[in-house]
Amino acid sequence: MITDSRGRRYNVEMQVANKRDMDKRARQYLFKLMEDGFLRRRQEYEELHAAYVIFILPFDPKGKGLKRYSFVYTAKEDPSVELNDGSEIIYLNTKGTKGKVKPGLDDLYRLIEGKPTSNGKFISRVKETMNNYRRTEEWRKHVMNTEEVAEASKQLGMEEGKKEGLITGVQNLISVLRDYGEDNQNILQQLKQKYGNTFSDKQLEDFLKQS
What we know:
There is one protein chain. The chain is built from seven helices and five strands; from the N terminus they run ββαβββαααααα. It has helices at about 20-35, 105-110, 120-135, 135-160, 165-180, 185-195, 200-210, and strands at about 1-5, 10-15, 50-55, 70, 85-95. Helix 2 runs parallel beside helix 3 (about 120-135), helix 4 (about 135-160) runs antiparallel to helix 5 (about 165-180) and helix 6 packs across helix 7 (about 200-210).
């Protein structure tokens, strides 16, 4: 959870799998933000701060092609009438092609998708933070863990003795690395290291696009 200088509360999270319960998961997160921000004695309702749940998604959650889906409470009878309670659920769709987002956010989408980015201030700060994190002990442990997962995934495929088993190993590795926040470029590099003798670069790229 993040709280800004104006007291607004944010829960920002990347969801790697398109699960049916994602909307209800977002509702649960929003409730937790609201619960943590309950009024203390003698506070007025106007002192309740806004709460936002933001999911960054490498897939289109609603199939409409929007780069951003922003959900607020509205009247069923007239959707133009909003309930101004200060809460909002936002889905950021890195696969989106419709609508506009700020240049910094568009750069973040491109980074997640493994595409070239600009040298803007926001994305430069993101990259700097990522590079600093990669020099920490926590990151080194993460790399060791992903190496172990990669080897286990590969062994699983070999034990099954079938191409389908190897493909499952690749898919498992992609899923785990995305859970750790790896971008597509780094995932592809690790796939080539682990499965380059079995699959071509093109096949590994296709697996990454399909996952």
